[in-house]
């Protein structure tokens, strides 16, 4: 077996990493905001795409450039290390409101100098009424406004082909950096880096021996630390849903290639080098994903488990055995399907050939929709009725559980449709105002069609819907079915009253304990709840796939939506907005994240969890089925324990047809100590959802949610 050197970092990399992770409150940079404002003001007579291209050129020509001592990979997003630039063309409303308080935000604070505050207070007023957000609001008030089709050639940035691994890696980072500067993007990902960089690595390290492996790994380390420098500033509400300031810059390794019509294992020496480099550095960037397939060697899987054992939440795994055949069914060419990569958290796409996003921009709170279905369409949080229905628990007029499911079907179809309407408006405004010229020039078919990726230029274009509270939905429906309709142990009006009172009082608390302990819970391999959840989820899938995004019929294959379960950390703020649920969850507490069980409800170990997750309609959830598992570090102390995890992984992917899995290897005690003494744990990395973050950079609520997750032993 190959033994990876996971405890080795060069002195320069240690120094760079240490400096970066101890920046507690990164600064704000106003250079981009100033330069873009100048060019937009000077060229009001020109179309927005031209203004935007001129602004990018002006900024690149006049921005601050610096090189730190001992760097191997150079390039900076902003004027200071880890500084976050401002993107006024998207919105200025929250910037004007929050700029003076950014330093005081818990878990997502930024240092803002008085000079930068002055600049922003000067720049922001000019943008009022011209931002994407302002135009979105205008779209909502005039639904008859048609889509503006814009045809525009994208300028291609010319590069000389790299000759060495070092040059190729630098080119990759420059492209990544300018893409981040061009647009206020998340999840700008590298694709299958071990495939397209391997020819350079092989020539330099293996054939010509002009570069030794250790130096190549140090170059990778330097690139990863440059990714850690990239930063984004978000509104307070967005920061809660993206706890830990993630950038979701994914690198994919492993998987298969299609060679002469036959699938072949794609793992190569660079796959090992990238894996080992991430295992040594143990940072939040890049977001490392491994493509699993049944033919993966035990040696490479063993290497992956060695890195998992390091305890920073990586690598995550995606399953070729599900993704590739389902992509081909969609109409993706086989050669392209075998070249898919993870994007952002767990979403998948074909690198260089996909539309501008893989993931939806609106979340559906399954728990709130379920509560509305149980109460005649009334939203329990706001008290408003958006889609009235006759049946309600408080009226006691559900005749059977089938009527409950009918109510769910009706409500989820309605809210799915509304979420697509929101998506359509935002997509349209982004298409008109943020053209991503450079990104479009790097995506197949955009230049040929003279369209940006937001106008339908890409070869493929699918978007996944997002949901929060999947496990809460299944557990709640199972409790209502068993305790209310099958056993009659709880009356409809009795349950409605307990939910309305948030289970306050002895009687209601006793009822809550019955809901918790007397009904089956998702995550324990119990068909009564697992299949019920799959049935409820299928309604959402069937409704969602009927809709098209604005690029449909304008060039790409696809133009449709499919389901996906990547909720990032939105389960915490969405839970704060959700009243008590029939699974016994109290109001305003976190919902379940991704497709994982609700915290503390999976009692039968990790094998039972993968049994439950495998019953979801995985093949139809092409946006990804996110499963987080938390293991005690003692679980992986010896070789036999490592073998158990390898068997568990193969069982999940090959027997249960799982889509995705990732691990937190950290004890509850360590997390509690880190929360209590943050200065001693600045480099502690945990898996939040489809991404990792520094634990001490999370808000207290997000920290508590991770601490509360079930800790398994193998």
UniProtKB/TrEMBL annotation:
Q: Which residue numbers delimit the Glycine radical domain?
A: 593-714
* PROSITE patterns the record matches: GLY_RADICAL_1, GLY_RADICAL_2, PFL
Can you tell which superkingdom this protein's organism belongs to?
Answer: Bacteria
Q: Name one GO molecular function term.
A: lyase activity
Q: Where is the signal peptide?
A: none
The chain positions of domain PFL read 11-586
Query: What keywords tag this UniProt record?
Result: Lyase, Organic radical
Using the UniProt annotation, give all residue ranges assigned to the region (Disordered): 581-603
Give one Pfam family, short name only. Gly_radical
* InterPro entries to which the protein is assigned, alphabetical: Form_AcTrfase_GR_CS, Gly_radical, GRE, PFL2/GDeHydtase_fam, PFL_dom
Q: What are the Glycine radical sites (modified residues) in this protein?
A: 690
Give me the Gene Ontology terms describing cellular component: cytosol
Q: From the Swiss-Prot or TrEMBL record, give the protein name.
A: Formate C-acetyltransferase/glycerol dehydratase family glycyl radical enzyme
């Amino acid at each position: 077996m190959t033994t990876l050197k996971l405890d080795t970092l060069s002195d320069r990399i240690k120094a760079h990493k240490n400096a970066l992770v101890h920046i507690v409150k990164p600064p704000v940079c106003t250079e981009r905001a100033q330069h873009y404002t100048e060019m937009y003001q000077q060229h009001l007579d020109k179309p927005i795409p031209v203004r935007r291209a001129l602004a990018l050129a002006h900024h690149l020509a006049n921005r601050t450039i610096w090189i730190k001592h001992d760097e191997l990979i150079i390039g900076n997003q902003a004027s200071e290390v880890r500084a976050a630039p401002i993107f006024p063309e998207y919105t200025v409303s929250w910037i004007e409101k929050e700029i003076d308080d950014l330093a005081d935000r818990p878990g997502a604070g930024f240092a803002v100098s008085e000079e930068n505050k002055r600049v922003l207070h000067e720049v922001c007023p000019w943008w009022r009424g011209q931002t994407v957000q302002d135009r979105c609001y205008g779209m909502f008030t005039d639904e008859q406004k048609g889509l503006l089709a814009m045809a525009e050639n994208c300028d291609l940035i010319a590069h000389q082909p790299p000759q060495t691994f070092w040059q190729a890696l630098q080119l990759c980072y420059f492209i990544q950096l300018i893409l981040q500067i061009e647009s206020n993007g998340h999840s700008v990902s590298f694709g299958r880096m071990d495939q397209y960089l391997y020819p350079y690595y092989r020539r330099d390290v293996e054939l010509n021996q002009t570069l030794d492996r250790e130096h190549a790994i140090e170059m990778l380390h330097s690139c990863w630390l440059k990714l850690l420098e990239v930063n984004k500033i978000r509104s307070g509400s967005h920061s809660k849903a993206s706890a830990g300031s993630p950038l979701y810059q994914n690198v994919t390794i492993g998987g298969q290639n299609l060679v002469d019509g036959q699938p072949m294992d794609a793992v190569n020496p660079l796959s090992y080098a990238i894996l080992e480099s991430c295992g040594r550095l143990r940072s939040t960037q890049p977001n490392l994903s491994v493509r699993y397939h049944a033919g993966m060697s035990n040696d490479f899987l063993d290497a992956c488990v060695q890195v998992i054992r390091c305890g920073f939440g990586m690598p995550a795994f995606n399953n070729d055995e599900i993704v590739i055949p389902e992509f081909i069914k969609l109409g993706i060419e086989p050669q392209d399907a075998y070249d898919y990569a993870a994007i952002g958290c767990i979403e998948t796409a074909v690198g260089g050939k996909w539309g501008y996003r893989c993931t939806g921009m609106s979340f559906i709170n399954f728990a709130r929709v379920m509560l509305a279905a149980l109460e005649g369409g009334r939203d329990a949080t706001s008290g408003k009725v958006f889609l009235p229905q006759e049946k309600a628990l408080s009226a006691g007029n559900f005749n059977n559980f089938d009527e409950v499911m009918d109510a769910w079907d009706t409500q989820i179809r309605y809210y799915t449709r509304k979420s697509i309407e929101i998506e359509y408006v935002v997509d349209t405004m982004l298409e008109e105002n943020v053209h991503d010229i450079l990104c479009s020039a790097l995506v197949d078919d955009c230049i040929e069609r003279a369209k940006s990726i937001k106008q339908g230029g890409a070869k493929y274009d699918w978007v996944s819907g997002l949901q929060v509270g999947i496990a809460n939905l299944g557990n709640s429906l199972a409790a209502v079915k068993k305790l209310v309709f099958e056993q009659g142990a709880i009356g409809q009006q009795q349950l409605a009253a307990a939910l309305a009172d948030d289970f306050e009082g002895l009687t209601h608390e006793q009822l809550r304990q019955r809901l918790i302990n007397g009904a089956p819970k998702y995550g324990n391999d119990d068909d009564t709840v697992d299949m019920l959840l799959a049935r409820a989820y299928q309604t959402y899938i069937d409704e969602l796939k009927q809709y098209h995004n604005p690029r449909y019929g304008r060039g790409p294959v696809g133009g449709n939506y499919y389901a996906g379960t990547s909720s990032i950390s939105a389960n915490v703020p969405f839970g704060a907005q959700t009243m008590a649920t029939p699974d016994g969850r109290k109001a305003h507490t976190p919902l379940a994240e991704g497709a994982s069980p609700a915290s503390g409800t999976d009692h039968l170990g990790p094998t039972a969890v993968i049994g439950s997750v495998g019953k979801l309609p995985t093949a139809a959830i092409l946006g990804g089925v996110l499963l987080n598992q938390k293991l005690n570090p003692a679980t992986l102390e010896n070789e036999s324990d490592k073998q158990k995890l390898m068997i568990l992984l193969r069982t999940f992917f090959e027997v249960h047809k799982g889509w995705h899995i990732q691990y937190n290897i950290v004890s509850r005690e360590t997390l509690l100590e880190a929360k209590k003494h943050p200065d001693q744990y600045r480099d502690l990395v945990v898996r939040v959802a489809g991404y990792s973050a520094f634990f001490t950079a999370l808000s207290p609520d997000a920290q508590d949610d991770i601490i509360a997750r079930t800790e398994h032993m193998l």
